[in-house]
Amino acid sequence: MLTPLVQAQEFGLVVVIGLMMAGLTLASWLKDGAIEAQVSRVEVPEGASVRVEDERLVLSLPGRADQRVFARGAGWGLGTQFGKPVIEQRQRVRLAAGDRLERIEPGFLVRQPGQGGAVRPLLRRDGWVLVDDPAPGALVREDADTGDPLERIELIGGVRAERIWPGQTLVRQGQAAGKAYLEGDGWFVYEAGDGTRELARAFRANKFLRLENLINVATSASFIAIMAVGMTGIIVMGGIDLSIGSIYALAWVAGAVVMREVLDPAAPAWVSVTVGLLVCAAAGGLAGLVNGASTVGLGVHPFIITLGGMAIYRGVAFVLTGGLSVNAPESFSASVKAGLSVGGVVINPIPTGVMVVAGLLGAVVAARTVFGRRVFAIGGNETAARYAGVPVGRTKIVMFTLTGLLAGVSAMLALGYFGAGSSEAGRGYELEVIAAAVVGGASLSGGRGSALGAVLGALIIQLINNGFDVLQIDSNYRQIVIGFAIVLAVVVDQAKGRLVKGPRGR
Predict the structure, then answer these.
(1) Which CATH number is correct for 207-501, 3.90.1010, 2.160.10, 1.10.3470, 1.10.1060?
(2) Rounded to two decimals, what is the model's pTM?
(3) Can you tell me whether residue 462 is helix, strand or coil?
(4) pLDDT > 90: what percent of the chain?
(5) Which residues touch 70 (CB under 8 Å, ≥6 apart)?
């Protein structure tokens, strides 16, 4: 069972995540109000490509391995703005056979409850006028010659009238009473790419509090969180691994290159996934083993060893690819990206699921195994642990190896999710992984840390990154904020340590 201190710490992180989500939701509304669809628009940079893949639009950026995926079921489609291609999110209604568009003259639309949005246009040319006496009023059609009332519709029982202006559009879907998609409400006729016509409208939504955005936050955080679980173990031992991002890149390209060279393009999914997982995990684990063995064997601080490893592993990844992107087999990518559609949003549960499993396994290892206790013992007092019979050197090597292996697993997921490998992958991830571990409660002085806290820390870091995108803040400030988050976490950790030790000292 986890200690009360760790439980309180993780509860505090959950509270912080909740407050951040509430703050971003509120900030999004305050900044842009109920934002229109033109805010949910992504320009296609020159040289980039967009391909249609099942119910997705996949944007590939020039010179980069990462891609952005937009679910067509959630309203994303191709369009143009100022003559340039864009990917934009809109509400769409496909016109079925027999549907017809009509231009409405000035008048009123009568909506009656319980008719599924059916409307009845009452035009001024036919003599319809709105009278307010007695309240709540009525629509009346009079004889043009005598002025005698011919028809009267009372605005009671939920019946309401809306004024319409020239040029608005009414869609009649094969029935006498149609459903109105008014230009005054933002609807317009859209010529779809397949030659059919659709009605489209800019919709109002919060940029942050959308299922698609929250899924993207969890998915993006998973690649960091899986590595942060291993990094937490190293930090608990009093060490550090600055090469984690380069190991991630090396494992990523190693998996892509091996699958390209040894697998048939038509290889079944289970074969490609097995090969990809084994190669990526082996490459990451081997690099971690080298870090651990070098630290223990040479007696050099892991900061120096992993600083050199950061350049070495990145260089090996560059040599393997020549600086070019290497595509993964389609069956491999399809398996990793396999998902389900919820409310028109495609959810890819595999990366997030692996993140949760890694966090839970890390928590169990730390709290329930001899190895976990040895890691904490080394971080608490390495000399005392050595005299107590703890195999310090072997434990360090195993911990570094496991961290490299987790980096390989994360790289395998990223390779399948993005579909290609590049030596530039994971650049700068060292800071984000360490930040996730430290924000999650790992003490840089050693002896304290939590695997579940690392996962929550990764979510906090990703919420910070997402907040810059949502609030349209210059991304150059992102690293500054993350750096401050690390400093704040360390200060809070030291203050907490002094408070805990104070009563005991007295």
Answers:
(1) 1.10.3470
(2) 0.68
(3) helix
(4) 23
(5) 42, 56, 57, 58, 59, 76, 87, 89
